[in-house]
Amino acid sequence: QVQLVESGGGLVQAGGSLRLSCAASERTFSMYAMGWFRQAPGKEREFVAAISLYGSNTYYADSVKGRFTISRDNAKNTVYLQMNSLRPEDTAVYYCARKYNSSSYYYTGNYDYWGQGTQVTVSS
To answer: Which pairing describes strands 4-7 and 46-51: parallel, antiparallel, or unpaired?
Structure first.
């Protein structure tokens, strides 16, 4: 059973920064692309960012492009999400997930294991 554990969430003022981490329990971490999603109250879970196996390709939602950066350290079985210039609309629970196939990075159905989520709250 794969476990993904997110950390780094919290309360921050608009314009501030946070770095989320997601630690994976499996040794085969480097064999999978990884993604970050978020879910705000009353809304569907949405794609935020994704990264390929060795980090050579990254993908972002238009709403975070230029502000968020996804990265990974395969030696530490960890994926990161650096979030800068945070806005109140970024407030959500953030989840990391393991992508299990070669289909779209943007669709939640292409991810099989999910973390428990970490709350990010941006005050105005």
So the answer is: unpaired
